[in-house]
Write a structure and sequence with these properties.
The protein is of the alpha/beta class. It is built from eleven helices and 17 strands.
Length: 411
């Protein structure tokens, strides 16, 4: 696990708080605005006079160690990074003007980079890992636009999450449009409860932005309106979500259906798979997701937690039912050792780098490099009784479905 924040010292003027960390060579070749860039000086040996001589208004100097401000450098000086592994070249960081914390807003090479849109939400899901707050945080729109302008041009994927991003209205559309212009080759993946898309005018407005590679990831927790509404704690949410999905399908938008696996959703998982096939066959992907033990999930553990070993039959039936009917399906957030080997073909390394960890039982596991591992927040009370090292195997993934686009097969 690599954290998204660390502490450091900064000295001198701070006219802005968000910067791109780059080497002088990269800034020249990639065209990053000098005033937005922090000189990356990893070992404290760069020649300040050479960089100062180019006359460009650099945003500042960043050296992880104790090197003190050089006499020629009158601008921002950042040093004494508590955990030097947290920050690297290519990253976009936010400094706190009246504090020592630095936050990573984009990390070069990370498995999953996301823009955090808002803490607000119009649902109150029982297992929400990011409990919503009813506060005006529209300032995040400007921050997202700022970060997008500094994301690597060749970034393959970028997420937008929350809260509920669609509550930002035109602000979210501005972010999508900026991604379209600034990062035309970057796929966007937006997590949303889909409820606002029940409004045809909003859907049409969103589609009009014209992003060429955008997926809306929308949760559907049951085939029963009452059960879905109970899980998200919002009456009428099921109808709004399903109508929203149909609106998106009408405009040929790519949608992914997400199902969090817990004590309330597992019993009707087969019925939900059938509902998706018969009513939402346009879904580009279905993700069946292990529970993240954060936020409301911790508060509601007794009513939600079930050992994955106890629902492998339901999980296998749902995966094979959907796969046999040509719907792309994946298992997220579950370690390989708790899954029957027939389900390994569906398992993905889905946990974000900064949340991901392994437990002592993983030592010597022959499948660790292909396993999702665990959420760092998962204490012993959240761990399956089936966790164990898998013996080394010559070909543990014979179907090669984990990396290819081929549809997995079931016996």
């Amino acid at each position: 696990m690599l954290p998204l924040s660390t502490h450091l010292e900064h000295h001198g003027p701070l006219p802005r708080t968000i910067f791109k960390v780059v080497t002088p060579e990269e800034r020249d070749s990639a065209g990053w605005p000098a005033e937005r860039a922090l000189v990356w000086d990893p070992d404290g040996r760069r020649d300040v006079s050479e960089i100062h001589r180019d006359g460009l208004p650099w945003g500042g100097w960043l050296t992880p160690g104790d090197r003190q401000r050089a006499g020629l450098w009158t601008g921002l000086w950042v040093n004494r990074v508590r955990d030097p592994h947290v920050i690297g070249p290519g990253d976009v960081i936010r400094l706190r003007p009246e504090g020592t914390q630095a936050r990573i807003l984009y990390r070069r090479g990370a498995k999953a980079n996301s823009l955090f849109a808002t803490e607000r939400c119009n649902s109150l899901c029982l297992m929400c890992s990011q409990p919503p707050r009813d506060a005006n945080d529209d300032w995040r729109i400007a921050e997202m636009l700022d970060v997008v302008s500094l994301v690597d041009h060749d970034e393959r994927n970028l997420g937008i999450t929350g809260g509920e991003p669609t509550l930002l209205g035109d602000g979210l559309l501005a972010v999508i449009a900026t991604c379209q212009t600034r990062l035309p080759d970057t796929a966007l993946h937006i997590l949303s409860n889909g409820r606002r898309f029940a409004d045809p005018l909003w859907t049409r407005k969103t589609v009009a932005v014209g992003h060429q590679d955008l997926t809306w990831a929308i949760p559907l927790y049951a085939d029963s309106p009452d059960l879905h509404d109970h899980i998200v704690q919002a009456k009428g949410a099921f109808d709004e979500t399903v109508h929203g999905l149909y609106q998106l399908a009408w405009w040929n938008c790519r949608v992914e259906i997400r199902v969090v696996l817990h004590r309330l959703t597992v019993p009707r998982l087969g019925a939900l798979a059938n509902f998706i096939y018969r009513n939402l066959p346009f879904a580009a992907h279905v993700a069946l997701m292990g529970l993240e033990p954060m936020g409301f999930a911790k508060v509601n553990r007794e009513s939600l937690w079930v050992d994955p070993l106890d629902y492998t039959d339901e999980l296998a039936d749902a995966c094979c039912y959907l796969a046999a009917r040509g719907i792309n399906v994946s298992i997220y957030n579950l370690s390989l050792c708790v899954l029957p080997r027939d389900l390994w073909q569906f398992a993905r390394q889905s946990i974000s780098d900064w949340k991901n960890s392994f437990v002592p039982e993983c030592g010597g596991c022959g499948a660790r490099d292909r396993c999702s591992g665990f959420f760092a927040s998962a204490g012993r009370e959240w761990r399956s009784r089936g966790i164990r090292p898998i013996p080394p195997m010559q070909d543990p993934f014979p179907l090669a479905a984990l990396s290819s686009g081929d549809q997995p097969k079931c016996d």
